[in-house]
TrEMBL record:
Signal peptide region: 1-29
Name of the protein in question: Molecular chaperone
Keyword Signal: yes
Keyword DNA repair: no
The organism of origin for this protein: Pedobacter petrophilus
Alphabetical UniProt keywords: Signal
InterPro entries from the UniProt entry: Ig-like_fold, PapD-like_sf
Domain of life: Bacteria
Length: 284
């Protein structure tokens, strides 16, 4: 009896463990059956390389092509693809490389994509940003094989969904500065199940800000209840403000007509939490 290959066994175990790690992480980006971890890359002279972990959670083998695209972040946080940078925006395309540029993943298989900083001597102080785009490639029929229509008089039209996922690659050089502030807090629709909190996230300095928004309700007697949490909110350069709103939870003892809301904007790195900004809204 032929013994199983030790290399193949180790490869399977590595893929299995990597998929489990990705699925258990909160720092992932997902679209269709593709998971990518981490969901953003930040490089500088102290950290010149980064590995991305890709995993296919679907039931079929899938191929993904990887390319670089450019985005503008609008004031509402939505992205718009562009080809020329806005004033104060710098593309990172010329300053990093990555490989491989395409991957084929079997079901529950994982693979690493490596990113490396290059040409760093040509960087001016500040921040550069581009986005890695992972595009699913539809499965092609073998040459000469066509799908047979159900009837001779039928016209066959097949729609194939093509999924895409983009993550930012950010390069920082030289002295960096960033400040954030929360302003214009307002509750929209104070109905019990549909209350929304509007917030402006303000940014200044020469780099982007990225963190989590947490909202606590403080009752008139001082009881604190968490009513909102959104992870991974960013304001990219050159934007100075992002208009954001989140739905507030409806919980026992919470009345959005009295008490106050306490909002914090924070980030966690290496087990340490950094407070970017905080604000309060008195309810009435």
């Amino acid at each position: 009896m032929k013994k199983p290959s030790t290399i193949n066994t180790y490869s399977f175990l590595f893929s299995f463990l990597l998929v489990c790690l990705i699925l258990s992480s909160t720092s992932i980006a997902a679209q269709g059956n593709l998971l990518v971890m981490p969901r953003r890359v930040v490089l500088d002279n102290a950290k010149r390389t980064q590995e991305l972990n890709l995993a296919n959670t679907g039931r079929d083998t899938a191929r993904y092509e990887i390319s670089v695209i450019q985005y503008r972040m609008n004031r509402d946080g939505n992205f718009e693809q562009i080809t020329e940078p806005d004033t104060g925006q710098h593309f990172a395309t010329k300053f990093f490389r990555f490989y491989p540029r395409s991957v084929v993943l079997a079901p529950n298989e994982a693979q690493v994509v490596k990113i490396q900083l290059t040409n760093s001597g040509q960087l001016s102080p500040g921040e550069y940003r581009s986005h890695l785009y992972f595009r699913s490639v539809p499965k092609q029929n073998p040459l000469g094989q066509t799908e047979k229509p159900q009837g001779s008089s039928d016209i066959s039209v097949k729609l194939v969904a093509v999924f895409g996922l983009a993550i930012p690659v950010i390069i920082r050089n030289g002295e960096i500065s960033m400040k954030a502030a929360l302003s214009n807090l307002e509750i929209v629709n104070k109905q019990e199940a549909n209350s929304m909190l509007k917030i402006d996230i303000n940014r200044s300095g020469n780099v982007s800000v990225y963190g989590d928004i947490k909202v606590n309700y403080v009752s008139p007697n001082g009881t604190i209840t968490q009513v909102g949490l959104v992870n991974g909110l960013s304001v990219y350069t050159p934007n100075t403000v992002r208009n954001f709103q989140l739905q507030l939870d409806s919980k026992p003892g919470v009345d959005y007509h009295k008490g106050k809301l306490a909002v914090v904007y924070t980030a966690e790195s290496e087990g340490k939490q950094t407070l970017f900004a905080s604000a309060e809204l008195l309810l009435k």
